[in-house]
């Protein structure tokens, strides 16, 4: 069982994702547990304000330290082993290996920034890791937190029905997954590669490896080169 705590001003952006399909079942089967904490509940001013102007000027407001720090202190006090992740666009990219590694943790806290971000001192003090999910800027950390928690969850034993699907998919061997097909054998004039229909698993496996290599070389030359160099 892994626990995800989402620190966010906007719980409703995150919680519906866990109300359906695989992650809903994972919660029912006690493979994952989720909770939400709102920094606004820790603000000490009249209007529960959590944002303020940037020191030295600059466009947009930042989340100021006190509400977040009080909240994160409380989480830390209750669970000194909680692992704190801050999604930020300027961090290194989150990859499949991170998802696999983090699936072994017991408690991960995702701290979502809003507005123009979070006062850097909070990140410095609390972050065990910082991640970006891609080279673009989103309006807050909620989507990245969801993306990461989803990728982590499916690497937890028992969350996916068939663990073979984990071994064969993209990035597991540093390559993209080979194309796959279902019925009918011919659809609108386009046929499934004939070897897939003959049932010789050794041949299909070799074919899939070849396709996987070609696909990686074409779509992700960066990954392909990394594999070649790594060997
Ligand atoms: N916050 C805003 N944009 C982000 C991104 N691309 N990755 C992680 N956190 C973010």
Question: Please, could you describe this protein's structure?
Answer:
The protein is of the alpha/beta class and 231 residues long. The chain folds into two domains: 2-153, Alpha/beta knot, CATH 3.40.1280; 170-230, Trp Operon Repressor, Chain A (Orthogonal Bundle). Helices cover 39% and strands 15% of the residues. The protein contains ten helices and nine strands. The protein has helices spanning 11-14, 21-28, 65-78, 96-102, 120-126, 142-153, 164-168, 195-198, 201-219, 221-230, and strands spanning 2-7, 32-37, 51-53, 61-63, 83-87, 107-111, 129-131, 186-187, 190-191. The strands form three sheets. A five-stranded parallel beta sheet has the order 2-1-6-5-7. A two-stranded antiparallel sheet has the order 3-4. A two-stranded antiparallel sheet has the order 8-9. Helix 4 (96-102) crosses helix 6 (142-153). It is elongated, with a radius of gyration of 22 Å. Bound molecules: adenine (ADE). The site of adenine (ADE) has 11 residues, from loops.
What does the secondary structure layout of this molecule look like, with pairings?
Blueprint (H helix, E strand, L loop, with lengths): L1 E6 L3 H4 L6 H8 L3 E6 L13 E3 L7 E3 L1 H14 L4 E5 L8 H7 L4 E5 L8 H7 L2 E3 L10 H12 L10 H5 L17 E2 L2 E2 L3 H4 L2 H19 L1 H10 L1
Parallel strand pairs: 1-2, 1-6, 5-6, 5-7
Antiparallel strand pairs: 3-4, 8-9
Helix pairs in contact: 4-6, 9-10
Bound molecules: adenine.
Adenine binds next to loops.
């Amino acid at each position: 069982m892994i626990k995800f705590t989402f620190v966010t001003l906007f719980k409703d952006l995150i919680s519906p994702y866990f109300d359906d399909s695989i992650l809903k079942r994972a919660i029912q089967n006690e493979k994952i547990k989720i909770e939400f904490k709102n920094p606004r509940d820790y603000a000490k001013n009249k209007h529960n304000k959590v944002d303020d102007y940037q020191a030295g000027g600059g466009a947009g407001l930042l989340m100021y330290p006190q509400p977040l720090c009080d909240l994160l202190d409380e989480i830390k006090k209750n669970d000194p082993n909680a692992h704190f992740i801050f999604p930020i666009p300027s961090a290194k990219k989150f990859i499949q290996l991170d998802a696999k590694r983090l699936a072994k943790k017991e408690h991960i806290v995702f701290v979502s920034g809003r507005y123009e971000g979070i006062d850097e001192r909070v990140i410095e003090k609390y972050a065990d890791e910082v991640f970006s999910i891609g080279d673009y800027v989103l309006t807050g950390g909620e989507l990245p937190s969801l993306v990461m928690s989803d990728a982590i969850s499916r690497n937890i034993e028992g969350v996916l029905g068939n663990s073979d699907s984990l071994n064969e998919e993209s990035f597991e061997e540093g390559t993209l997954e080979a194309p796959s097909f279902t019925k009918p054998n011919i659809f609108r004039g386009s046929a499934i590669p004939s070897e897939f229909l003959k049932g010789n698993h050794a041949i299909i496996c070799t074919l899939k490896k070849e396709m996987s290599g070609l696909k990686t070389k074409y779509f992700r030359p960066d990954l392909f080169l990394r594999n070649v160099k790594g060997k």
